[in-house]
Amino acid sequence: MLIQEATSSDFEEVWPIFREIASAGDTYAYPRNTSREEAERLWIHVPRRTFVVEIDGRIVGTYYIKTNQDGPGNHVCNCGYMVSSSARGKGIATALCEHSQKMAVELGYKAMQFNFVASTNDGAVRLWQKTGFYVTGRLPRAFNHPVKGYVDALVMYKWLGT
Amino acid sequence: MLIQEATSSDFEEVWPIFREIASAGDTYAYPRNTSREEAERLWIHVPRRTFVVEIDGRIVGTYYIKTNQDGPGNHVCNCGYMVSSSARGKGIATALCEHSQKMAVELGYKAMQFNFVASTNDGAVRLWQKTGFYVTGRLPRAFNHPVKGYVDALVMYKWLGT
What predicted TM-score, i.e. pTM, was given to this entire model? Predict the structure, then answer.
């Protein structure tokens, strides 16, 4: 498993992963029909850095890191992670999360926050808890799940201890 | 007190209010030295709507309303409010908050969320609680206060009951 900063040509392989996850509509706050151009803007250009993870030369996952709030909040970062459904169960999300925490400290951040985790996304919630995050807020019915309707969204947080 | 949608020429009077509040650095997640151009982008152009409140023909306060999260989160809005220090204690912030809640329902939103309320901003916290919000999350040391250092930030939330 090789994690490295995304190059300008990597979005070609990131896009099918983004599209698969956004179009399912059950985990991320992106419109299900987000266009390729908008996805590239959101995932590659808006964030401070974007990384990809390769197995056997193929991109199977990606994450971004960005500043979560400006000014008095700019010591807290936010990350988003996506793993191709074809590569689940290999510990890739955990590896990306651990990589992102080291990167956050390297970039000078003191904490990491996830703003909008669907409470139905048990796998992600458990994984972030395993890597040191805790649920610090619950937003009642803030996530409109395509099958379950309005479900709670969670705010998760970790002080990075520097 | 007259609350109406901001016109393109209103930013002239909004800017001194924005600058006063942002430069204090103790309430909003804006850089203390935010430029006028960037302030206009953030307060007028990025939001879905922006309103101003006038007393005797002078703008003394303003608020914006925007969608807080896209896609599965786009039924929850976010607002920001600013009142000139020269016009405090007249119930203007309460009036703006009530106006924004009606506007939110009119625009089709089902809930309103404040993402980043400095826990030291007692007046605002009390005011939002009085208008039906509650603290649903606490972000430890997420707000870098210019005098008090790292203090907690609060996530506040209100379901608008539609």
Answer: 0.96
